Every structure is written in C-alpha cells, then in structure tokens.
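User: Could you check the structure of this?
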Amino acid sequence: MNFVPVFSEKLPERECGFTLVEVLVALVIVALVLAASLRATGVLTTTQQSLRASTMAAWSADNRLAELRLAHVLPPLGRTESPCPQADLLLTCLVEVSASPNPAMNRIDVWVGLQSEPEHSLAYRIGFVSALP
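Assistant: Sure, the predicted structure tokens are below.
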C-alpha cells in the first residue's frame, strides 16, 4: 500500500533565535529591574547615613551625661551649648540643668544636633546628677 501524504508541499523550517520585538521587551524588563535596584540602593545609603548620625548623636549625649555625673559636683542651673563632635560629625550639645524635687540632685536634659542644623535634634537624653559620691 502506498500512502499519499495529506500535505504534499514541504513546510519551511522555523529559524532558531529571538525576534527583534522579543529582544526589545527583554531589554525593557532588564532596564526596569536595574532602575528599581538603583533606587533601592540610594534609599539604603540615605537611611544608613541617617542612622549613623543618630547613633553618634546618642553617644555624644550619653558622654555628656557621664561627664556631668563623674564630676560629682552639681552643675549650675541654666542652659549651656558646646561642641561635642563624634568621629567626622560636627555636633552641638545643648545642656539644660534644672532643679529637681530632691535638693541633692539636678535634672539634666541633653539635646544633640548637627552644628549646621542646631534646631534639629538628633538625640535627646534625660538624666539626674547628684553631688554625693
């Protein structure tokens, strides 16, 4: 028996590879992913710098409170402002000493901010200082 094929003409073979449209769509997707990752990296860098400044400001506030406690002398009442740099950050410490209900102790409020923006506080600490050893 002789079988006759239904399609007698030969079908053209499909070329291997991608079309121009497929390549362009892939490039657009890759570009969007790269743009999103670049934006995320920028946000992470900004967040890291802010966290570093806040941490160093908190250290400066803690240091100022420790200095006042170790003096074993009641500091005078009022406000004082002085530089308190940490590493490469130029910080300013604002210390306010006020009376407490206990006459042997004073309340200490410490605000720390950048010297370029002293009105913006990066750290705030409250402590008490006693003249007693």
